[in-house]
Specification:
By secondary structure, the chain is mainly α. The chain has eight helices and three strands. The relative contact order is 0.09.
């Protein structure tokens, strides 16, 4: 038998998980990027915290050491598309959680092939409809590098080749972009006519 490995936890829970504002923010991120559980969000936050800690520790080093170590960090982040090639440590410290989620295979597939929702894109990835080069990748959280992004494509037998198409405008999906909403008909009500009650004629009583 092999040696037992000590696995390191790659995510940390928030200190106040039951905070209302935090819960609403987490639910919004889950819906925006089509995450399955909050654990995926916590993993991304832990990774973002690790990258920021590296940048802060580099700022505390001497200039000659920093000039040697900083390009290594910037190059590694540029490779996966988190920052631009000419970025600085300030740009690394300004990274947001959305910058990390935008490089997930699920998000890249949704934008490239015009899926209606991130959950539909996640289903396509999980069911083996996505190729990166010549290999099928069925992990929605897979981080797509800049070099791999042009190689992302649908499998030839995928049904999504027929049902997906580029929208003609920025209004939405092909099913909704040409949807016409009829204008409300405003009916002008005629003013009510005043009805004048005529006084009854007085009856003349004849006296004989």
């Amino acid at each position: 038998m092999g040696d037992t490995k000590n696995f390191r936890r790659v995510w940390k829970k928030p200190k106040r998980p039951l905070n209302f504002d935090l819960k609403m923010e987490e639910l919004k991120i889950l819906g925006t990027f089509g995450l399955k559980t909050k654990r995926e969000l916590w993993k991304a936050r832990t990774e973002l915290s690790r990258v920021r800690n590296q940048a802060r520790s580099l700022l505390a080093l001497r200039q000659e050491v920093r000039d040697k170590e900083e390009p290594i960090l910037i190059q590694s982040l540029t490779k996966v598309g988190y920052v631009q090639p000419n970025a600085t440590l300030d740009d690394v410290l300004n990274l947001e959680i959305s910058d990390l989620f935008s490089r997930r295979l699920q998000t890249v597939v949704q934008k490239k092939f015009y899926f209606k929702t991130p959950y539909q894109a996640r289903q396509a990835v999980s069911h083996g409809h996505i190729l990166i080069g010549d290999r099928i990748v069925n992990i929605p959280s897979y981080v797509v590098s800049v070099d791999e992004e042009p190689k992302v494509k649908l499998t030839t037998e995928s049904i999504f080749n027929e049902i997906l198409s580029e929208p003609e405008s920025d209004l939405g999906s092909p099913e909704t972009e040409n949807l016409e909403i009829p204008a409300e008909e405003v009916k002008a009500e005629a003013p009510a006519e005043e009805v004048k009650a005529e006084a009854p004629a007085e009856e003349k009583v004849s006296t004989e």
